[in-house]
Amino acid sequence: MNIELVKKSMNKTICYIFAMFEEAEATIINNNFVLIEKEPFLVYKNNKSYLTITGIGLINSATCLSCLISKYDIDYFINIGTACSIDKEINVLDVVVIDNAYLGNVDVTGFGYKIGQVPKMPEKYKSSSFIEAYNISKKQANIFSSDIFINSTEKVEKYVYEVNDSIKIIDMECAALFQTSFILKKNISSIKIISDVIGSKSNEEEFSIFLKKCSYKINEIIRKIEQNKK
């Protein structure tokens, strides 16, 4: 653990961003989070940090983060939750720290931009370095986010690798959160727990089996972060 980085983050306010309540349930129960806001998004707070549930999808996640930034004084955001692996070296229940986030659903190549690049925005969005303080995992990867549910190798080839062939995991929120943070000049990192792997079997079936296990693992990670805060 990087002690100097931990010291710098100890007095900072963190908000944990989840897509689904099921991912956050163990963390809410075991870290004394109390509901402080029901609409338009669920927001929880304990004596150290905030926690929110965005709902699934790019628009939901970006809107939720924008609301939080406008209402609360938060220093660091951590997007944490489940994701799908498209790489044979990243397996179910592995913990992965995101390096770069790429958007799907974007094609303005006719104006000289890359696939996945929003006009006048970066091609990819880099994670903030503050998460390195906690040595969460040695595994790092690039992530692809879109509103398309990727559940086959054919969709990976069609949508994901068209953007960048270095991408190893996929979800439906992370890159939108990173883009919002980039625009509003906020620090954000992401930690993903692998719930399913493309190509092994139906990832809809795997997801329902491993979601609860992922929730407990997420709780362990957040407890580690919380214990190092004042």
UniProtKB/TrEMBL annotation:
Q: What is this protein called?
A: adenosylhomocysteine nucleosidase
Q: Where is the Nucleoside phosphorylase domain?
A: 44-224
Q: Name one GO cellular component term.
A: cytosol
Q: In which pathway does it act?
A: Amino-acid biosynthesis; L-methionine biosynthesis via salvage pathway; S-methyl-5-thio-alpha-D-ribose 1-phosphate from S-methyl-5'-thioadenosine (hydrolase route): step 1/2
GO BP annotations, alphabetical order: L-methionine salvage from methylthioadenosine; L-methionine salvage from S-adenosylmethionine; nucleoside catabolic process
MF terms (GO), sorted A to Z: adenosylhomocysteine nucleosidase activity; methylthioadenosine nucleosidase activity
The organism encoding this protein is Spiroplasma litorale
Which Pfam family is an annotated match for this chain, by its short name? Answer: PNP_UDP_1
- Domain of life according to the entry: Bacteria
This protein's gene is called: mtn
